[in-house]
Amino acid sequence: MTVIRFTKATQDDVAMVTDCITAAYAKARETIDDLPDVTSNLAEEIAEHCVVLAHNDDGLKGVIIYAQQGTAMKVLNLAVSPLAQGQGIAGILLSRAEADACKAGCTHMELRTHRLMQDTRAIYAHLGWVEIEVSGNTVAMRKDL
Known about the structure:
single chain; alpha+beta; 4 helices; 7 strands; 34% helix
């Protein structure tokens, strides 16, 4: 894999980020009927939160959206292009968010995912995240820093 570069998303990136997230969730949408639309407010997300893009010379590989809330850094969305899945991009993006969380003085990170996204849950667990609550189809996860 070539070197991954990080950039912060701008409003000019909305279409590219939308395409990446849509592609990343496409397979899950085939079998999970109640996945929320996480692309409808991307311009607002970019304006209000930290949106980091991971790319190389071949293009956008993934995106992570996160925001500090008190002592927690909340991961609001993480998407990896289907062509880049299995290459460690999710871990690289989460490490970037974790580094920012540590710099900001956060004590932990939090996220929510869908109960039926078993592969996603396994990736998070492999990266040190712990499931702390299951409510309906939502799984809350936490990683202490």
